[in-house]
Structure formats: structure tokens, C-alpha cells
Amino acid sequence: MNRFIIKSILFFLIIAMAIILIPFFFKNASAGSSDYMAAIIDKHRRIDIITSPKIILGGGSNLAFGIDSKELEKTFGMPVVNMGLHAGLGLAFILNELKYSIKENDIVFLSIEYFLDNEGDYALKKNVINFYRPANKFYSGNYFTEIDIYLEKSQKIFKNIFSENDDFKNTSSSQKAEIPLYSRQAFNQNGDIISHLDKPNPREIGGRSKFRYQYWEGIEEINRFYIFAKSRNVNVFFLFPNFPISEYDKNEKVISLLETDLRKDLKVEILNSPNSMTFPESYFFGTVYHLNKLGRKIRTNKMIEILNENADVQRCIFKSRSVKTIPEL
Amino acid sequence: MLFNSINFLIFLPIVFIIYWLVAGKGLKVQNILLLISSYFFYACWDWRFLFLLIFSTLLDYCTGLQMCQASNQGARKFWFWLSISVNLGFLGVFKYYNFFATSFTEAIATLGLKVNPWTLKVILPVGISFYTFHGLSYVIDIYRNRIKAEMNFIDYAVFVSFFPLLVAGPIERATHLLPQIRRKRNFEYTKAVDGLRQILWGLFKKIVIADQCALYANEIFNNSAGYSGPTLLLGVFFFTIQIYGDFSGYSDIAIGTARLFGIDLLRNFAFPYFSRDIAEFWRRWHISLSSWFKDYLYIPLGGSKGGIWMKIRNTFIIFLVSGFWHGANWTFIIWGFLNALYIMPSIIFNTNRNHLDIVAHRKYLPTFKELYSIGITFGLTVFAWIFFRAENVSHAFQYVNGLFKHPGAYFLLGIYLKYINIIIFIMIMMTIEWFGRDKQYAISKIDNRYPIVIRWALYFSLIGVIYYFTSTGKPQQFIYFQF
Known about the structure:
The complex is a heterodimer of chains A (329) and B (483). Chain A has 329 residues and is of the alpha/beta class. Chain A contains 13 helices and seven strands.
């Protein structure tokens, strides 16, 4: 028994030491202020500076890659902040981030990727925290998740030793050299990604999946956010995200079940139907949620049309615009 | 708590140390500890279903006792059927209710009538098919006077819920596992080391092979309409390897873990893809389930005693039930039916026990004839997996049709080169398995005959590859957990 324990300890100690020491000896390829996730710094800088009322867009990268916020600003005469960054952060993170950022009379439009996982990817969240410390308030971590995150970081570096960073496989090396497509510099002042607008579409569209129906736990999460927002006198609306027609057709049954659940249980007003935001594949850029220049333009116009047609949205915008803004100290 | 999760990596050494250092002194304490840790392990999935597990355990324990104490055959029969119907009732509600309701509605609709199916939002309790089968075998064995009822509840509860086998088997028999639970276990160095080695090989098959194959298989199956024949063929090939790596990997981890606690579980896989005919394949694939069906269904139905027609009928029954056991979907039933068809020639010509030995035993390579037989058997199983993996029957047929789309593309090397990395890993795994096919698991040969430096270098290399491929974020589920 003793022999087994001593040998096992020695064996696992060697492995543990290797895993622990990897980050000390090898540089993390994804670190650095030009990292895509570092854009969170600029988004928060903007949302903190701009006085309310303002329009806030909340969701994952479908917003970052799919909205022309300047066009919305022009149409509605209100400042727009696009907080969309990465769906991998998880719904809880995205909503908590908004909770800390919204102020009275703001209007929030949520456009959440289908069946977005509540918890998200811890390593991604940890990465964000490395760039923007206050983000640690946006998720509930514990001792085990901290270990988990460290292990993931170590593993990522280990992988990078043997291969190129494959985080964003859709970006070819030549594109990377020209302009950093997935970087902090790719965003404009409003928080929209613009670096890809004049680029040719990548050959393949990633992120295709066949959904399996299950009651989406995100409904409860959004309802909790709604109650919080209401107490701060912030209006919240929900929009289904953009999606390729082919993918929608494949998942129509499951999406319609999700829509039924949302219409039944979601406290937030839903402004569109899922198929109203479906577009041909030629409008997409690299993944099923990212739009190219044409797709982004059409989606923005569609969104404007939906918002203009909705009396509640119009009322909110009118009310918010008529509020006499007091500059914050 | 998944075997490939960090939580299990923490859970296992803690239980191991307490088990041998604290509880190792007495059998009772050992079993209580195993039971508590098994219930904790199960509660990590969904604590609500722990009550179902405890209820099912109590039911079979009590009915077993009642059967033994019954004064007449009528009372024995009553307790027997009570246990069988409640056990199957739970399985029916949790696993099959929605399937029957929907199928019934669809059948009625073909007659022009409309019925609203009352479907439930039922979550399938993890491992229900496995622990129900444990309980059933125990009750049936008592009823047939093969065993006496277990008097000690703790021992019986450990038999049902021993954590390495709780969620996906191997499906144990009371005759095999209970005597081990009743006996005090003493630590055996070689057994523990062997257990760790088997866990390592299981993790390799799961994380490096199955999870990587899953990426491609899922992509190709989910978008099958857009792919040409050769890619679809690769898709089902990847699934064939995925399901083997996933389930045999899981079984290796389960068996290895049990060995750390001094318990030997039934073997579940014996290199099935090297089989020379379908009968041999089914003696080597999910052995604990196949033998369960043989003992508790095939033989009670008359087995092969009643002539050729009865043999054929019984074979079809066990394969259809086996398909249905895997899930409430017509695709599984067709998969079972196909396998029954495949095995028919050997049943009719009585050649089903032709290959009881190990292929090319004590030789490096198989003969051409053996290779040909292996190829044909493998091809047939690959075809059947299409039905197992497809979302529904029409998807399966569409997939099969797709295999004949653009036949010229089968000669385009580029299509295969796209997947060369994973194909290389599959070849490495299959080569290791080939050279270890006369053992319980492929790398069990790496024992004390080799110097420690070589052994540890091999282990560290395997761990390095596993670490490289371990998915960041949530660990990948095992396929058989859904059954």
C-alpha cells in the first residue's frame, strides 16, 4: 500500500508540476491588450461615459458582427452602445454585465444566441477578467472553478507549443497579417465590429449545429434581469438573433418550441419571430451568427423597421428622449 | 460527475485513500463508505433521482427477502411480478412513455383520426436502464433459485449502486459481484496499478479518439444533406470509432476504477472490431448486456432448443429488444433488426460458434482470409451504425442515399487527407489494440517486464496526448449515459 501511494504521489506530482509550471515557462499566445476580448475595456468605457438615456444592445457576437449602431443612433436620436462580445461568456455573465451598467431610462435590446448556455466558458471569462478586472463581478466563481481555469490556461499554452493558436480557425494567416479581424482594434467606437466589412467571406460557415429541444434555462435568467431592470426604470425588449435560413429550416421544430416557451414564460416583450431574422448563407461571415457587410446592413434595417413598428418601443424611446438628461458627476 | 471531469479527478483519490487507510480495516466500514460515495457520485448528476435509485434498491431488496421467506409458490410469484412490473414500469415511464404516446398518435393519424398526445417533459434519470437491469437480474436469479436473497441491505445497495458501474455498466450479476462485496477486500499492489493503467487507456480512447471523432461525425451527420458520398462514409466511419472509443473507454475506466477498490467487474468489450463474423462481434461488444439478454430473455424464451424456427424467432426478439433498450426511437429498433439479419446465416447454418478463439492468435498479422472476414464484418457494423446515429428513420435513409451521391468523389484523395490527423490517431489506437488483443485491455502488456523508465515514459506520453485533447470547458458526455 505504502509503495503504491508513494509511487502514485511521485507520478502525479510530476504531472502536476508540469501542468503548474507550463504557464511560467511558455508565453500565453492569446494574452495582450490587442486581444479580441480586451474590447470589453472600450465597451465599458463608452457605457460609463455616455449619460443616460441610451440604447444598450446585449447579447453575444451576433450583435458585434451584425449591427450598425451608428445607423440606429441616427434613426432614433439616442446614443447606442453595442455590448455584444462573445456568446461563450454565457448568458449569466452577459446579463450581470448589463446589471452593473444600466442606468435609469436606458433601453436594453437583448438579442441572445439560441439556447445560449447560462454558465459559459470559464477560461474565456477568466481571460476577460485579465483585461478588465471589474468583470469578476459578472460571474460567480469558486475555488474549484479557479483551479479549472488555471488548468485550462495551462492546457491552452501546452497546445500552443505544438500547434498554432486555433481559437479562430476561420481567420486565415494572410488575413491576420493584413488586418486583425478578431482583435480589439476590429471594433468601432460604438462597439460594432467593422474590420471584416470589406473582407471576402470565409469559405465555410462554422458553428452549425442541430439543436435538441430542452426547456431553456435562460428564460428564468432573463426574467430575473427584467425584474432588476424594471426596478431601475430601465425598459428591456427581446429580439431573436440572426440565423441562416438553411440552419433555421434544419432546426425549425426545436426553435418553434423554444419560441412557444419564450412567448409563454418570458416577462420581456418579444419584438420579432425567429424566421423574421433569417437570411441566406451568403449574408454570413464565418459563423452562423456573424453577418457580413450586406447582411449587417439588412439586419440593421430590419431591426429599425421592427422597432419603428412597435408601439411600446416607440413609447419608450419617446419617453427616454424627452427625459431631461443631467450629466453625471 | 463525469469520469473525464476534474471533479472525478478529485473525488476518486479522496475515496480511495479513505477506503484503504481508514475503512480498510473492516468489511462493514468499507461497504458503508462505498455506498455513501456511490450515492454522492449519483447525486452529483441530479440529487432528485437519488430517491428513485434508493426506492428501486429497497424494492428489490425487500421483494428478494419476501420471495425467500414465502411459504408457497403463489406468494413467491406475487413478489416476483411485483418487482418486475414496478421496475419495468419505472423504465417505461421515464424512458418510453413519450415514444409510445407519439407512436400511438401517429398510428391513429394514419387512420384519419386526430388524438392529442399527452407527452410529458420527462428527464431520463441517468443510469436507469443499467441499475434496473441489475435489480431485475437479482430478482430473477432468486426466483429461479440460483441465489439466495441478500440479507444485508448495505451489501445489496452497494451491488446496485457501486459508483464505477452505476451510470453505464457493465451490467453486473449478483452471482459475480455480491460475493466480492461480502468479502473483505485487501489491497493488492498489482491490481491497483493495473486498474490505473486501464483507466489511462480508457481516457485515451474517450478523449483522444472518441471526442475527436465526435467532432467530425456530428458535423457530417448534422449536415448530411450537404456532403458527398465519401464524406458521408467517413462520417459513419468516425461514428463507428467514436462509439467504440466512447463506450469501451468508459468501460475501461469503470473496470479500472473498480479494481482500485479491489473489485473485479465483468468484461464489457473484447476488441469487437477484429471480429470475423457478426456472432463473434456480439460476443465481444457490450458483453455484459448481450449475456444479460441471453440469460434472461433468450434462454427463457426457449433459446435454441426448439428447432431452427424458434432459434430464429428468439434471435430476432433479443436483437429488437436490445435495440429498443438503447432508446425510444425507431432507429434503434432498425439497428437491432439489421443485426438480427446479419447474424441469421450463422444461426441457420449453425456457424455462430465458429470463432471462439482470438483472431490470428500468437501471430503478428492476420491471414488474408481473416482480414477479409474482419473487413466484411466491420463493413456490416458500420452500415448498421448509420441507423443508430441518425436522428430519425428518414434521416438514416437520406444518409444511406447520400452515400451513392457523386461516386466519382470516392477516388479523390483530398477528401480523406482533410481528416488525416484523426485518421492517424485512429490507426495508432487500432494498432495498439491489435497487439494487445489477447489481453483484457490493449496496454495491459506494459507491466513489470519493462523497466520503470520505459513504462513511465509511455504513461507520460499518453497523458500528454490526453491533456492536449482534453476539451476546455465542460467535459464531453459519454454516449451511453443517455441510455
